[in-house]
């Protein structure tokens, strides 16, 4: 260990994270009266003792320390407040365990891990328990009261069963299990008689097994559900141990518990004998997935069960295939013929594949690189004599060991085992390297393992950039330039995320410079708005061409600026002004009018008043007044046509109101043509003609309107009188067409004879007189009309007419 501790571990609060994690030490002066005036120091070290952080503790008395699954240090204070620090001593956040804990103070606390996250369990001065199963999503749960509990339990721990956190505590000879609603008494099966108290309890790393140390010196081991006993061991020591933890490998049938006293370490399990070690220094035990880490002021060791593959190869006089293959490879390097003899022996037993696999597996569990190489050479040697041995396992083991050797280095200080590494996954390991700011090593591992850039190098570079912006001793220009040179256009890296971190650190100008490198405007604009750089955000949104983004900025600007400044900003951005006008047309009409007034846009202002006259005004007076305002605006815009048309509409509205008052019926909001038609249909022909004169409706249009109206009324007599009133300006073919449209052939024939020569053939065909149409077409010698009549000749009835047309054509061709 590289640390130079001035205090004994027993005088400190100690917390060590699993999976080769960091170690936190807080000297606890609150236990010593004479040192109460000295402020404690919180030190954080790597597993190899390299200092990571040191800070003077300025808060209240601390009861317990513990590490979360994300390697955040949780410091539980006596008042129930939990302070959360990062790996480098940076304060992250704090939270309280509730008012009850504050009032009754904290006697003891445990940090535990579940599949939901890291939890905190509190024992208060009122001898009640409060816990939260996940500090990331804090939900406090007050556990039921233990009947008759007047003092603190002799020992307690947290259990996780059926995805729920429980509290197991010992009060004298009784064990109580607390869940969210009930307190129940439990009895370990097969417990030796005479127990009057439980002095220590330990739950395994996976929460599947439980160990109990009794005042009789017996250690009971069983399942965490307390339904099955595994074994019981009498250690013949009645003194309460300082620590007791489980030591077992995944999928192993062996179960062992490590018990530590002041100067003695004992490993007990199914065997009748125990393994004992003498502790020269005050030590601390850290349970791991596959063993126990034991560190003191000078050493850091790992105690674990020997893996099966390693045992088979290295035990004395072993004849296992892996052992023989290792010897064969060593003899081969010596150029001895014994190598062939060992290989033949393995091949005769058909165990060469098994031997290679044993060597590969054993290499993974070795910590010394020379032993790893020796075993891998043996595996490679054996592979040469196999035809179809898949190389993937061998290659993957070589890669894994190279990564493990790199992180086990003294300066890195993450002593992971192979089993822990596989359980942790490479992604979590990279996260932990990033957390320690070991960016070059993390990038080298990504490149060596050929991980996808988004998952590997890009992600690490993004973390590096977020750390870089926190270096306030470097200028904004230098930081931005360094980040851009390093990242460039690396896929998967978001400059906006880095800029957000810079803004969070109070470096707004740096954040703006970094956003210049962000290619996605959709990522730039929200952060610029958050930084109160709304005008710059508007420019970026307009450059992107994304109208939704522009609308977002405009609405933000509208709420942020006063009305005048907002309009002046829009005048400098024509595209934004146009979009805002479109928005106002549907949402804020009054604002639209103000925009037109400010810009002196009389043309659009007039159009606005016309729309407003019909949309908002129901009274005729209000509508006419709005139209008058529109007409005035059109005159200011020098659009005389629009102004005259608006004045005509005002006259029409007044006339329609007068007609409604005098004649009844519905005239208001009809068009001029519809008004004339309605008058004709009502029999008010003179009023219709007067209206046509007043509004200068052309004769042709008036005749069409009257013709259509009389035909709709089927007033054929009036229609005939109308046709004879004077010469029709539209001719008489329309009369024929309208009559036929009303299915009145009789009336249509009256007008067919009055149709001019140019249109007579068409009129006769409309009334069905094909023969007469043929005579007129022959007389006019018009080829187009002859073809038209011929196309209407059908069947035997018109056969003579068709022949007549053909003969006329033939004669015309002879001439």
TrEMBL record:
Subcellular localization(s) per the UniProt record: Late endosome membrane; Lysosome membrane
Domain Vps16 C-terminal: residue ranges: 493-811
Keyword Nucleotide-binding listed: no
Protein family: Belongs to the VPS16 family.
Name this polypeptide is given: Vacuolar protein sorting-associated protein 16 homolog
Pfam family, one: Vps16_C
Subunit structure: Core component of at least two putative endosomal tethering complexes, the homotypic fusion and vacuole protein sorting (HOPS) complex and the class C core vacuole/endosome tethering (CORVET) complex. Their common core is composed of the class C Vps proteins VPS11, VPS16, VPS18 and VPS33A, which in HOPS further associates with VPS39 and VPS41 and in CORVET with VPS8 and TGFBRAP1. Interacts with RAB5C. Interacts with STX17, MON1B. Associates with adapter protein complex 3 (AP-3) and clathrin:AP-3 complexes.
Parts forming coiled coils: 325-352
Keyword annotations of the record: Coiled coil, Endosome, Lysosome, Membrane, Protein transport, Transport
GO MF term list: actin binding
Function of the molecule: Plays a role in vesicle-mediated protein trafficking to lysosomal compartments including the endocytic membrane transport and autophagic pathways. Believed to act as a core component of the putative HOPS and CORVET endosomal tethering complexes.
The keyword Transport appears for this protein: yes
A GO cellular-component term linked to this record: early endosome
Membrane topology of this protein: Peripheral membrane protein
Domain spans labelled Vps16 N-terminal: 1-396
An individual GO BP term: vacuole fusion, non-autophagic
PANTHER family (UniProt xref): VACUOLAR PROTEIN SORTING VPS16 (PTHR12811), VACUOLAR PROTEIN SORTING-ASSOCIATED PROTEIN 16 HOMOLOG (PTHR12811:SF0)
Stored InterPro entries: VPS16 (IPR016534), Vps16_C (IPR006925), Vps16_C_sf (IPR038132), Vps16_N (IPR006926)
